[in-house]
Design brief:
By secondary structure, the protein is of the alpha/beta class. It contains 16 helices and five strands. A five-stranded parallel sheet has the order 1-2-3-4-5, with helices on one face.
Length: 376
């Protein structure tokens, strides 16, 4: 697998002026920084941008986001209205050279800081959908869907993103596509069938790993996968279970409910009583719901969990929660969940390192870089 890439925040006003050459740390950080602004603007358009603490934390790190909390749209714009602040038509925008496009991006970025509105956000989305970087394009498409009508350019941009080999690009695109077409073939192809579990003999108190949305077919959480093998090597005392838990990976309350039921049954059939569980993204939602069905965990390691109060675990059935996450997680920004688990009900230890990349929290390089193996 590729080495862990430590994204760094770059002020979006500066990032919008940079040439993006995919693969370099600086360019990837600039693209992720632009995407964070775009998704923050999307939240403003939807009327959900109200996490002042996240903005304050970002600003303290030199990454200033504008306050877009009062920018909620009143209607969808026509495409020609969306491009009007750029001074070009949609057709002309598609034909611009990279230097001219950077100029448009820089002007649109500056405008949303100075005069935040649905119109300035829409113009920024339209310009950014022509970025040379796929992450910027999919974040812009997610935003453009909320300011204009759904059209071929938006759908095609997200479809291309869903097929990306870059897990961050794919994650943002899949999350955005799920809001448009939750039954899209590209999403359905990533799901696992619900199958009966086989009862095995013996009992053990071991650690178990589970995946998140649209990731049931991924290798990282399974025996032989990079995170599974990294955890087994770094923490042999956890006696990692020889099998990992797979659920459908679908994005729906039905999938999470069924996943919780399956987790309860699977743990019982595997002879696992009060195990440690490492769960990524909505795999943690499944685990939290499983506690409401009587499942008990010693440690519950939430890796990039989209926080929602109605998805909290039963505090009586979890000894310790370890909350591992990045700052300004781009996939969670599209999901709409919270990015900080703060409650007096739980024994929670939070570890916040790095920026933007939802998949980083199950990357062994991330765990090594930030010294997390011994923190669980």
């Amino acid at each position: 697998m590729a080495a862990y890439l430590p994204y760094e925040p770059i002020d979006p006003r500066e990032a919008s002026t940079m040439s993006l050459v995919p693969g370099t740390v600086e360019s990837e950080s600039a693209a992720a920084s632009q995407a964070a602004l775009l998704l923050s603007a999307r939240a403003g358009v939807l009327g959900t941008e109200d996490d002042h603490e996240l903005r304050q934390e970002a600003e303290a790190a030199g990454f200033a986001l504008p306050d877009l909390s009062r920018m909620q749209r009143t209607r969808r714009l026509r495409v020609e209205e969306a491009t009007r602040p750029l001074g070009v038509s949609a057709k002309e925008l598609a034909q611009e050279t990279p230097p001219d496009l950077r100029d448009e991006m820089a002007r649109a970025t500056g405008e949303i800081y100075e005069h935040p509105s649905t119109e300035t956000a829409a113009a920024l989305f339209e310009a950014a959908m022509h970025s040379p970087h796929a992450l910027v394009r999919v974040a812009a498409a997610a935003g453009a869907r909320e300011t204009t009508r759904l059209r071929r350019q938006i759908r095609q941009t997200l479809e291309e993103g869903c097929l990306s080999d870059d897990p961050l690009v794919a994650g943002v695109a899949q999350e955005a596509m799920s809001k448009i077409d939750p039954k899209h073939p590209y999403l359905k192809a990533a799901l696992a069938e619900r199958t009966p579990h086989v009862r095995r003999t013996g009992n053990s108190h071991t650690a178990v790993i589970s995946h998140g949305t649209w990731a049931s077919g991924s290798s990282w959480y399974q025996p032989g996968g990079d995170f599974y093998d990294g955890l087994a090597a770094e923490r042999p005392d956890l006696n990692l279970h020889p099998r990992s838990f797979t659920w459908s990976g679908d994005y729906s309350t039905t999938a999470w409910r069924e996943g919780a039921e399956d987790m309860r049954d699977w743990l019982s059939n595997e002879g696992l009583a009060r195990p440690d569980l490492f769960a990524h993204s909505h795999g943690a939602t499944v685990a939290n719901r499983a506690t409401k069905l009587g499942v008990t965990f010693k440690r519950l390691v939430l890796m990039g969990w989209p926080v929602r109060s109605d998805w909290f675990p039963d505090p009586a059935r979890v000894d310790r929660i370890i909350d591992v996450r990045v700052r300004l997680d781009l996939v969670i920004m599209v999901d709409g969940g919270g990015q900080r688990l703060r409650t007096d009900q739980f024994n929670v230890k939070e570890h916040r390192h790095g920026w933007f990349n939802h998949a980083a929290t199950h990357d062994p390089g991330y765990w090594t870089t930030h010294g997390l193996w011994d923190k669980v």
